[in-house]
Amino acid sequence: MRGMVAEIIAVGSEMLTPYRVDTNSLALTSELNKLGVAVAFKTILGDDLGQLTEAARIALGRADIVLFSGGLGPTEDDLTREAVAAVLGVSMQRDTSIVDGLRDRFRKRGIELRDNNMKQADVIDGAEVLPNANGTAPGQWIDTEFEGKRRILVLLPGPPKELTALYTDQVERRLRGVVPQVHIATASLRMAVVPESEVDARTAPIYQEYSDVQTTILSTQGEIQLHFLASKGTEAEAEARVAEVQGRCAAEMEPFVFSAENETPEQVVLWLLGERGQTLAVAESCTGGLLAQRITAVPGSSKSFLGGAVVYSNALKTAFADVPPAMLEEHGAVSEPVARALAEGIRARCGADLGVGITGIAGPDGGTETKPVGLVYLGIADGAETRVLRLNLGGDRERIRWFASQHALMELRKRLL
Amino acid sequence: MRGMVAEIIAVGSEMLTPYRVDTNSLALTSELNKLGVAVAFKTILGDDLGQLTEAARIALGRADIVLFSGGLGPTEDDLTREAVAAVLGVSMQRDTSIVDGLRDRFRKRGIELRDNNMKQADVIDGAEVLPNANGTAPGQWIDTEFEGKRRILVLLPGPPKELTALYTDQVERRLRGVVPQVHIATASLRMAVVPESEVDARTAPIYQEYSDVQTTILSTQGEIQLHFLASKGTEAEAEARVAEVQGRCAAEMEPFVFSAENETPEQVVLWLLGERGQTLAVAESCTGGLLAQRITAVPGSSKSFLGGAVVYSNALKTAFADVPPAMLEEHGAVSEPVARALAEGIRARCGADLGVGITGIAGPDGGTETKPVGLVYLGIADGAETRVLRLNLGGDRERIRWFASQHALMELRKRLL
Fold first, then answer.
1. The CATH number of the domain where A387 resides is what?
2. In this structure, are B172 and B142 located in the same domain?
3. pLDDT (tens digit per residue) in A210-257
4. Can you spell out the DSSP letters for A26-68?
5. What is the model's pLDDT at position B2?
């Protein structure tokens, strides 16, 4: 039996500029998949009544569930309600309780309610109103027939916070009542410092044995993710299937896997530091604060992360991490001894259990034949031992810096395990 | 006269997961707009021949130019060629010169050419082959009639680097020969630390006078952008129109505008530092390296940026920026005197012309009644004077940190002007 399929229609001319991507559909897709509903189509179009009506007609022809995001506001350009009413051949009625709510809301803010705001109170015949706790435009839910088939239409506001809250509060349980009940389980593996092609070559023979598990491989920002999804008659069956394929893939890729719980590398490192009651300090040259920034982006990082120094100039390498000027002179700032001295120096200076030193050439300029762009030395000191990795990273400045921080986190994880 | 309109169809089941957005269409939209072509529709769908053929039919019914991205690879799932041939009712021929090229490419890499790779050499009847310098799948260009109307179909590979290079090398000049010639000029203004609603309220009365200029307002990461586009009979006319509306909007929003040249705030600050031959050092507590990271992400930043310290712990505020322990004791780490001391201390320690100190509560925990989450003190010292700003920032940890770094850059800009 084929499950229900959905189409997501994002409405708004700003979505057709070079500047904006539709991210609402990602959150909706994730939620729909949990109900066993696949998204088969996404359409993005502007604020044109004729085009919008026609797109709604096409969607109703090919999808069981059609979700609209945007076009519910108060301006002339907000036409989703009108288009849906037109394609269904029904009218709209102004809902006085919504009008009262709008009046109230505006009065509280001391703003005048203008006529155009009233259109947000127009309800399509046969629709249920979905109250919007975070904005003025309510959503609408329509369970109807179109050309002899049952169709669900959901009108949602465009602002992401309004849309996701409204989905959770109002739409999810309504969909559960409509969609044939299936049990979905998901799992993931996150890996780093390994090429996507290697992950695919090694794990495809495993996950392809699981034709009932949907596997997605993703490569993003120096990280490879495997996502598994199974849909079964019971939750236990679904959980068992994804756990099995996840476990086998994890064993295959062992040293590169940093999380099976959808955590970031920095979360994993902070968790390990916390577990062991250890502290960390970093001295960054070519990454210029990126590593510290990633770590401190995690709430509660101050428990294990003391801080460190951004030692862009040679003078600061000496001032903040006690790298001897003679060493900088002899070996150059980008060298094995300097990475070692940075790691040891910052560790001692900050009184941390672990110290990291990073020095390298992020480019685009500054490379030489012996020290090309992408050469990075990464030192990690724990008092007993200091190890220095020499990395040759490819790509542009952004990629080199990111991968250097990624390697630092993976090495810290290894050291802490 | 209505200009030509385009539809972009992104093909690939991975585009319908919760993990991936279609960014190819942004690059294509930007290029198409430069030719005076508006993108009216975007469709995203999976690797299903029936659905893909139907989507191509719908697109040919409503757009003059239909661009496909993806689905040109060697696997069974790559079906864009097949769908386009089906909708046009034509056949495909295997092109021997493409086969030879594939053979060559594979031999050079020492990989065996498998049968399925051959399908990349299938050329739709009536199509021109668009050589792909960066991958195995060539693009295709079809200039044809569909239901009595002239239609252009462009098949492009999905990987972004292949797609953009192929567009530039092969597609752009072909489109120029098809599209009625117009002259397009664009301009932009970038603003920060001002709400979008204020920018819109103040500039809308200006840009609405220019009905021949398309204005887009965007709010992204603590920044508001205005983008202007005019299409005219001559380049000079188009340039003059966008320059006029840009100039008037810039005058209206004067203190908040940091670039009319599409630069980032960090680029502007580094440019000003370079101009004046001055250097900068930063001491960051709540931003944890974010400010340093943003500045050092700019190539060449080492000329003006010396470095600094991430002083997460109180001990490091003293060790790296000489904040007196008694001051930390008396006023707390998040206080006006500590921000001042951090700015002055890091400036002196690093021997920089300008010093920045940031201390605050990024949350989600750590707030109190008198010092709530979002309270940030920002100090800037230049030797002659130290000024401290008290900020009350809203939102989550990420937003508070970002806006704190944004304010720091805007204050640095002001100080340098």
1. 3.90.950.20
2. yes
3. 999 989 888 887 899 999 999 898 999 999 999 999 999 999 999 999
4. HHHHHHHHHTTPEEEEEEEE-S-HHHHHHHHHHHHHH-SEEEE
5. 55
Residues B311 and B213 in one domain: no
Beta bridge partners of A355: A281, A381
In this complex, is the C-beta atom of B42 within 8 Å of any C-beta atom belonging to chain A? yes
Shortest distance, CA B93 to any CA of chain A (angstroms): 30
Task: Tell me the three state secondary structure of residue B267.
Answer: helix
Query: For residue B226, what is the domain's CATH number?
Result: 3.30.70.2860
Find out whether A342 and B376 touch, Cβ atoms under 8 Å: no
Instruction: Answer yes or no: is pLDDT of B1 > 50.
Output: no
Per-residue pLDDT band for A384 (boundaries 50, 70, 90) equals very high
Does an H or E element contain B160, and which?
helix B160-166
| Distance (Å, whole) CA A154 – CA A237 | 31
Q: How far apart, in whole angstroms, are the C-alpha atoms of residue A344 and residue A321?
A: 8
What residues in A contact B287, CB-CB < 8 Å? 293, 296
Q: Report whether pLDDT(A310) > 60.
A: yes
Q: Do A25 and A161 sit in the same domain of this protein?
A: yes
The residue among A360 and B104 whose pLDDT is bigger is A360
- How far apart CA B245 and CA B208 sit, in angstroms, is 10
Q: Does B292 touch chain A (CB under 8 A)?
A: yes
The confidence score (pLDDT) of residue A1 equals: 35
Of B125, B144, B176, the last residue of a domain is B176
Range of the structural domain that residue B68 is part of: 5-176
Last residue of a domain, one of A239, A259, A279: A259
Contact check, Cβ <8 Å, B19/A295: no
- If you count residue pairs, one on A and one on B, with CB atoms under 8 Å apart, how many are there? 218
Name the minimum distance, in Å, from the CA of A23 to any CA of chain B.
7
Contact: B282, A319; criterion CB under 8 Å:
no
Chain A environment of B299 (Cβ under 8 Å): 363-365, 397
How far apart are the C-alpha atoms of A362 and A356, rounded to whole Å? 18
Q: Is B176 within 8 Å of chain A by CB?
A: no
Domain count for chain B? 3
Question: B320 contacts in A (CB within 8 Å)?
Answer: 307, 309, 320
Q: Is the ipTM of this complex over 0.90?
A: no
